[in-house]
Amino acid sequence: MENYKEQLDLACEKFRKILEKQLVRVEDMKSQGDFTDYGAIDTIKIGVCGGDGIGPIITKEAARVLEYMLSDLVESGKVEFKTIEGLTIENRIACGKAIPDDVMAELKACDIILKGPTTTPQKGDGMPNIESANVAMRKALDLFANIRPVKVPEEGINWCIFRENTEGGYAVGSSGFNVTDDLAVDFTITTKQGSDRIARLAYDYARKNGRTRVSLVTKANVIKTTDGNFLEDCHKVAELYPEITTDEWYADIMTAKLVDKKRRRDFQILLLPNLYGDIISDEAAEFQGGVGTAGCANIGKKYAMFEAIHGSAPRMVREGRAIYADPCSMLRAVVMLLSHIGYQDRADRLERALDICSFEEKRLTITGRPDGATCADFANYVMETLEKV
Ligand code: IPM
Ligand code: MG
Q1: For the chain, what percent of residues have pLDDT higher than 90?
Q2: Has residue 130 been placed in a domain?
């Protein structure tokens, strides 16, 4: 056998650096304060970034609805909007960074971000393989909870997915390496603090919203250490919520059970590590009408970011269909934004209007093609409906 000493030494050195950074992160988590109290700050700064592909189109419409709903607060100075340019794939490639420094500074000067989808490069697609802007933002702003609601009223589906958002396969997803020409390695990370904080948020949400069941989803039978710890830490939190039933599922059988019409309506809250959460939330959204209809909240102690659960749909742009993109993903994200900053009554109103437009009245439908409504027309329809609820 060849002597790989040099490669092994190099790999160990890289691995050590990864672990050192993660240990710093653990210390940061330990010293973190409480969640921002939006009622207590004079002016809530909301940054709006359009992103790539269909991003600027759907974000513009969502921001228009949001500004309309908060116009009195903008007037009184309680809320301030700021457009953040420069989070485009072209700019990110030119800077060689997932988030250019000036954009990062602008993001950090806001309390809340409304963000359109951004294009994520991958190996072999002809772009420099920089880290995803979503992932970088979630990590930089420590947005540890990705909350993704899905509901299909006529089928009794009302799920809320709590996806851990800064760890798992994503924590150092861009720091894997080729040890030799033949051997490559990536890493998955779980910390006690990381599991504890997402679990607390999920169980708190369950308690506050009268939900009675939390389902933990892992592959702890195979990924024994990290998923095993995640499970163990979630169970510790579960003990603090004795009125809530906790059950465990492996991610593979969960994907199957979600298509089982007899069983799936029984699920309420899914609590899961990052990568499983990514995959299962797309599957879940499909029952609601596709990823174009699903938004999410990325919540941290200091910052929060609201976005669609889907990507930038470059194919729609290439085929000239971008104006027919569905703004509902971003509008659902706006519902979560309003609720997060303390305006639950306005969140409920927008949710009601969206439900009427999407599930009940359906005067306009979005198909993503010229046979459907445009993104702007649909947003107008939602705004007209808001007047009636
Ligand atoms: C999501 C997306 C992102 C993710 C991509 C674009 C990096 O799929 O928000 O679910 O994997 O988290
Ligand atoms: Mg995804």
Answers
A1: 95
A2: yes
* Residue 377 within a domain: yes
Quote the ligand 2 centre to 275 CA distance (angstroms): 8
DSSP secondary structure, 164-177, as one string: E-SSBTTTTTT--E
Range of 97's domain? 33-142+300-389
* One-letter identity of residue 265: R
Ligand 1: which atom is nearest the Cα of residue 307?
9
CATH number at 89 reads 3.40.718.10
pLDDT tens, 55-88?
999 999 999 999 999 999 999 999 999 999 999 9
71 CA to middle of ligand 1, Å?
A: 31
Give the pLDDT score at 109: 98
Ligand 1 atom closest to 311 (CA): 6
Domain count within the chain:
1
Q: Which residues of the chain form beta strands (DSSP E)?
A: 44-49, 79-83, 112-115, 145-152, 157-164, 177-178, 184-185, 213-218, 245-250, 269-272, 295-299, 304-308
- CB 85 within 8 Å of CB 92: no
Q: Are strands 44-49 and 112-115 parallel, antiparallel or unpaired?
A: parallel
Q: Which of 113, 120, 164 to mutate to test the pocket of ligand 1 (most atoms within 8 A of CB)?
A: 120
pLDDT tens-digit readout, 216-251: 999 999 999 999 999 999 999 999 999 999 999 999
Pocket of ligand 1 (CB under 6 A): 120, 132, 134-135, 278, 309, 311
The token duo for 220 is 């702890």
